[in-house]
Amino acid sequence: MMQMISLESIRNCLEGLVPSGVATCGADGMPNVTLVSQTMYVDSHHIALSFQFFNKTRENILVNPIASVLMMDPDTAARYRLMVHYLRTETSGPLFERMRAKLAGIATHEGVEDVFKLKGADVYRVLNIEHVPGRELPSTQYGAPILPSMRRCIDSLGQYGSLDALVDKLLDSLDRYFDIRHSMFLMADVPENKLYTLCSRGYPTSGIGAEIPFGVGVIGVAARECVPIRILFAASEYQYTRAMHSEAIKQGLSSGLEAEIPFPGLTSPGSQMAVPIMSNGRLLAVLYVESPLPNQFGYDMEDALVALCAKMGESIQLLQLQAQQGYSTKTNPTAAQPCSNRAEGPSLKVKYFSRDHSLFLDEEYLIKGVAGAILWYLLNTIQKEGRCEFSNRELRLEGQLPLPDIADNLDARLLLLSRRLQERSDCLAIEKSGRGRFKLLLQRPLELVKD
Amino acid sequence: MSQNNAAQILDPQMVELLTSHISIHVASSTDQNQVSLVRGVGCRVNARHDRITILVPRSQAEPVLRSIAKNGRIAAVFNQPETYRTVQFKGVDAQVENATAEDIAALPAYLRSFSERLLKYGVKEIYVHTLCGCEADDMAAISFSPLAAYLQTPGAEAGCKLPLGRPLP
């Protein structure tokens, strides 16, 4: 028996690089043919076609759901004729957002942003795939095979021990094995509907601490919908993450949004992809990669990053569980040892605003939110008790800190704080002193000022 | 579609567009209302401007040609890639014919012009020649009298019926 060509093997045709033809048939038996801006791979048995206008195609599939799609491989010019069965139209949700983002890229690439607005994603079941005879070109897709690179990434992610090491290893591996030069790792702050940047590669400034609300840009949509978002061309609607970040602040999309730290990112990315990192259905973080060149991240790369992010999700979850176990262990959390730091020189003026927990070192902005509140607590403890070693458990028990009850992500907040201090201060630093413990190293006398 | 409609005379500007080496897709339907489609590799319009002939590779168009031979129903969409201007014609009297020597001789010009149109999208000439190339003995012609035309340029007017004999907006 002859096997049907698999949809996976022709996914390249479903990138929307060459418009597909779609034929339908009306109740009167008359054929109708049109071009569709975007066809998209949904899974091994389904595709989605962009629905942008009410037209005859729409009218026809509602009476006669069988259609024929002619698609071309953008690399080899191979032609495939699909017989498909219309199932439903999705007007919101993950599939719709994936298609909307991708279409925005195509629209900008072709200069028709105003016209190419997605009304819905029409989902079809693929009944048959016919490889249409004719001339074809040899494939030029001679890039490094994805699977060996993925295996190397997985190997390097096998030994981490801390969130700090894990996120660094991830971004370094992407650079080393996938040649992805621009990347960011953002932790989700679900109660606040936003993400904060924990780590980045390939930008003039790290942007650690910069925030983006759920639903804004490629990263925000991936977080809100918990679905990978991939754009093959510069997409004006999603393009300037940095500009969108400013716009979100201006429009008050997220009143508590970090406004002081500029968002990292290319000003004009040619290709973008954001992949949510989940664990047990819960959003933990988002991995974002981009390139100045168009058409850099295909379906296979998306699969690879989704698999890597699944591994990341498990690892982060494991670290959180270990942290929780440490929290519930009833050992003496903190041995009150005096600081061995030698605080010399002029005092470090630390100004704290309780309204948003923003904190300034010598009048220069450092951080706000949970991380700001933590640092304020640590500095006050140093001043009052003369000790500079702390435990995560102690912070969790401290009622004044604005940590959410569930999934507080304390490790991520401490990592954010630690990295901000590395970047912004030469007299304050966080240093791990054991499992679930750390020291705050202070080299100048303190002057604490509260609003 | 009523068969009483008389075939219309195409506007000269429309004829110019259709024969200006643009993207063509042709669809047909079986008596069981099953559709198929194929890419066209050229087009000509007769001197009276009331019959459109589309050239297709026979080996790729087999299901389309079979339905047309049976019931004559046809839909053809023409798209000018660089402007998005798109128009669809429908007919009920389509016939499959042999391509003429002129049709075969016209293919290189189609490939050259269509390649030039797609250059701005970064599409290489060899790609168009591969996609739309056709052996001389494989070329078939489908001719029909246009009974109705529909504007399909992306936008709010997409799908609207166009009065035949008028140019494309």
At a glance:
The complex is a heterodimer of chains A (451) and B (169). Helix content of chain A is 31%, strand content 29%.
List the helices and strands and how they pair.
The complex is a heterodimer of chains A (451) and B (169).
Chain A: E1 20-25, E2 31-36, E3 39-43, E4 46-51, H1 56-63, E5 66-72, E6 79-90, H2 94-110, E7 120-132, H3 146-156, H4 163-178, E8 182-189, E9 194-201, E10 211-213, H5 217-225, E11 229-231, H6 241-250, E12 271-279, E13 282-291, H7 299-328, E14 348-353, E15 358-361, E16 364-367, H8 369-385, E17 389-391, H9 392-397, H10 410-424, E18 428-434, E19 437-442, E20 446-450
Parallel strand pairs in A: 14-20
Antiparallel strand pairs in A: 1-2, 1-5, 3-4, 4-7, 5-6, 6-7, 8-9, 8-13, 9-10, 11-12, 12-13, 14-15, 15-16, 17-19, 18-19
Helix pairs in contact in A: 2-5, 3-4, 3-7, 8-10
Chain B: H1 12-18, E1 23-29, E2 35-39, E3 42-45, E4 52-57, H2 62-71, E5 74-80, E6 85-91, E7 95-98, H3 101-118, H4 125-132, E8 139-144, E9 148-151, E10 161-162
Antiparallel strand pairs in B: 1-2, 1-5, 3-4, 4-8, 5-6, 6-9, 7-8, 9-10
Helix pairs in contact in B: 3-4
Protein name (chain B): Pyridoxamine 5'-phosphate oxidase family protein
Organism (chain B): Bowmanella yangjiangensis
InterPro entries (chain B): Split_barrel_FMN-bd
